[in-house]
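Hi P.,

Sorry for the delay on this. The queue was packed all week, but I finally got your sequence through. Input first:
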Amino acid sequence: MGAGRGDKFMSYLGIDLGTSGIRALLVDDKCRPIGAAEAPCTVSHPHTGWSEQDPQDWIRALEAVVAQLRAEHPDFADLSGIAVAGHMHGATLLDADGTVLRPCILWNDTRSHAQAADLDADPAFRAISGNIVFPGFTAPKLAWLKMHEPAVFAKVAKVLLPAAYLTHYLTGAHVADMSDSAGTAWLDLGARDWSVPLLERSHMRRDQMPDLVEGSAPAGVLRSDLAARWGLAAPVCVAGGAGDNAAAACGMGVLHEGQGFVSLGTSGVLLMARDSVQPAPETALHTFCHAVPERWYQMSVLLSAADSMTWLGRVTGRKPAELTADLGEDLRAPGTVGFAPYLSGERTPHNDAQVRGGFSGLSTSTTQQDLTHAVLAGVCFGLRDGFEAITGTGAAFKTLYAVGGGTASRYWLKMLATVLNTPLHIPEGREFGAALGAARLAMVAQSGATVEEVMTPPATAEVIMPDIGLVAAYDAAYAEFRRLYPAFKSLSS
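Then the structure:
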């Protein structure tokens, strides 16, 4: 792959801005990790359903991780490229002087649910943006602001997503990439450009939006004052960056049709790269631009995946790993107890923030193992909902990687492979997340190497195969699971 400055060694910095903090990964010019650093960020909840962060907190965290990397890794001085990946949908509002007007309204803030419903009722939003207007998206946040904080709304000169705000801090430019911008509800998904009609419908203007670049293209150059303070002599390229899930896909080498990953994290994500635009908003799938040119991706979201096991561990007084270990190694047939994993509502395919979950089929003979098995199965079935939504667009998974904390349970992996009736590839190594994806974007932007050269898939350490003898039984159990949502929906309304 192209190195850039002759034979000189170069390093690249990938920044992953998460809700709870920043993680920075320094890699060499072969994309091998050199070192990593983390710093926390705080979230405030001034009212029920509100979720905000002070953008200054992101800058403090960024400076902290840079200071740590500088102190611990001399290779930082050879930094040639930077890219930022960040949590999507957040509204960071600047006035004409570049001053932040108020705390950033985050992706998990639900205050604008009425405004989201109003915008979503306009067919143009789904037709042009390719997505339902979810309450967490950026557009309804500005509609809420116009109604409830009109003085602030009147001063808005730029709306920046969290990653774009950090890119602005690094470069002084107002630039965002298409993968992140697709989560605003203002982007024309097919054209990969701002939609003036959607902006106007939200009482916004194009000049309030950042300039758009591909995530793997240069967005600017590191400010000279920052470069001097960080001990960097040569110009440092800052790439367009990405939304967090697109960056994770870059870190996994998930670029082409049929490549995908399932993440058993706090939430559950099933993502597939797409070579063309195939939106299916009626299924509550997210269809977004990828962080590389002429690529898109589709993603289903299960709000409580590993979080369901965390909850069960909390109420039983046991660690989730202990609960799953009790089930042994061999996958069991589905039990009579069912679990609806809607502890915080549900995204795909129901788009229902109000529904709540629970168990079905409990009896006096129900054991703790039965509950554990039901929770694991309920999460797998919820992920199958997303699997069916994606494959329902005509796509087929050719390679499906499994990542996230939940993959520590082999039992859960065997169950998921069986429920999806799809082999799960367990990647070798640990560094393949959003921070690595961001570092890869920086390398492409700076070096001139191709996306395919840099964003290679990880080696497969193991393939978890479906238990063929149990596929039919889990298919039948999934059909029963599909009956739980309307039942729990009626109880939650």
